[in-house]
Amino acid sequence: MGSETIKTGRLANGEAQKSVHKERRGLSSNGMNGKHENLGSNRAGTSSSGEDYDLMMNTGDVDGNLDGDVEPVFRKARQGDLTFQDIHDNRDFFDEDDEDDSDWEPVQKHVELIKWFCVNCTMVNLGDGVICDLCGEHKDSGILRLGCFASPSSQDAGCSEVESEMKGKNKEMHSQLSASNSLTAIGFDERMLLHSEVQMKSHPHPERSDRLRAIAASLATAGLFPGRCYPISAREITREELQMVHSLEHIQDVELTSHIFSSYFTPDTYANEHSACAARLAAGLCADLASTIFSGRVKNGFAMVRPPGHHAGVREAMGFCLHNNAAVAALAAQAAGAKKVLIVDWDVHHGNGTQEIFDQNKSVGRNGAEGSCVNIPWSRGGVGDNDYIFAFQNLVLPIATEFAPDFTIISAGFDAARGDPLGCCDVTPAGYSRMTDMLYTLTGGKLLVILEGGYNLRSISSSATSVIKVLLGEGPGSELGNIAPSRAGLQTVLEVMKIQMNFWPSLGSSYAKLQSQWGAYCNTRKQIKKRQRTEPPIWWKWGRKRLLYHILVRRLHVKSRGKPSLHSS
């Protein structure tokens, strides 16, 4: 009875819809109305044949109001003798619009794949989670507002306890500072943030403006800049200055991008209409910082610039780099009076552009001064503080001391930092501060640090902050003890020393000492491997062959005790 009521109600509610088709089908409105009156008075009844009442009413409605030419067709339909030709000739009668199905849609399950990119490392994450699977950063963290001081695992909630605490410390620190303490200069200009990739590819480009934003946020939160550091005004490098480093064709190619909405020098080296200006500003800041530091107006400086530069060669841009900022700074220092300039590039990638540019410069490169270009190629990934500092102690510092520079430039790529998606190494902020401190004393503090790579915002901002604190005179922390390198790190240092000791005699004594250390290391490894080879499988020890295991162990023990006496005789 319930289902019948539902069907009847549907027909009654469809009356207005059916009336639209009455005239077109040749049906009588009066006849239709009469049938609906009967339908209303016998709503819950059934026909004598036992069929649902609404079906009988529908059939009777059509059967009693047919035109003469349509009646045979309907009769055929009831008898099951209808042909396709009959349907075609009477297609108006068989119109299927009796019930409006314009709002009908097939049942489909739309599965939307949620995809978001981590603000910290740019890696893609799938699903509705809020923590990056790669770096553990919250998708809405405050790293662009507080830098490395923001909580990595929670959402930015405006003014936090960390921010309030840092402001209190900064006020106390500023009250104790005098003008003579502001001897570290920072080079930065917001126009460098406009350099960006116009159209994102599979994921955000790692060399993005957020890198500078995160560093600036960290320095501001720590009260270093603005605050304890001296700002230097920016200027665009001149074409004449650039021609001392790059070919005219390369300079013109970069300039051309200012008239193009989006362009690429290589598949990963992009440019937009603001890129040429940003590159000139970066190079100009580095040049002015170098001359300002060497002249003594400030003690040292940090160039917070982009695009980076150490891959840009004489004739081409590549590796995210347009103009070589370190090379420009080195020549600016020499123009200010420096005779020997040391460039230390600790970026995880080879500074091929810088090496190419100074191949023809005796005061920095290797033309007529073989051994002035020293590369330390790590043989594996995951290199951390110990290997880097070990290389500094045994290679970088001895060579730098013998070279005796009067100005030092660090191409500071932080892509060897822990968590970097491209470098995949493990250097910590403490490691970077230690390396900076080692180079700080070489030239009496005349040191310029230039930002190169580094693509994890938390790693790059915390590392840069630690380096700048060393420039300001803060110590790197506890003294280092005996640094134990990895086996691969020790081997790399020995291989480089073997070549470079031909040009730097001071490496000779260290090389002999490290060789003996390497020999002892290899002997230890051999003994460990030998024990591993003679150790029976574990399933012998507890399986059905345990008796054979005990016999074998006893025989090996007897042999090992008998060997010394045999050798001694």
UniProtKB/TrEMBL annotation:
One GO term describing the cellular component: nucleus
The record's keywords, sorted A to Z, are: Chromatin regulator, Hydrolase, Metal-binding, Nucleus, Repressor, Transcription, Transcription regulation, Zinc, Zinc-finger
Q: Which domain of life, per UniProt?
A: Eukaryota
Q: One of this protein's Pfam families, by short name?
A: Hist_deacetyl
Q: Name one GO biological process term.
A: regulation of gene expression
Q: Where is composition skewed (Polar residues) in this entry?
A: 39-50
Q: Which SUPFAM superfamilies match?
A: Arginase/deacetylase
Enzyme Commission number, as recorded: 3.5.1.98
What cofactors does this protein use?
Answer: Zn(2+)
For this chain, one GO molecular function annotation is: histone deacetylase activity, hydrolytic mechanism
> Where would you find this protein in the cell?
Nucleus
Domain RanBP2-type intervals: 116-135
Q: Where is this region: Disordered?
A: 1-57
The record, for Gene3D superfamilies, names: Histone deacetylase domain
> Signal peptide position in this chain?
none
Q: Which family does it belong to?
A: Belongs to the histone deacetylase family. HD type 2 subfamily.
Question: Which protein is depicted?
Answer: histone deacetylase
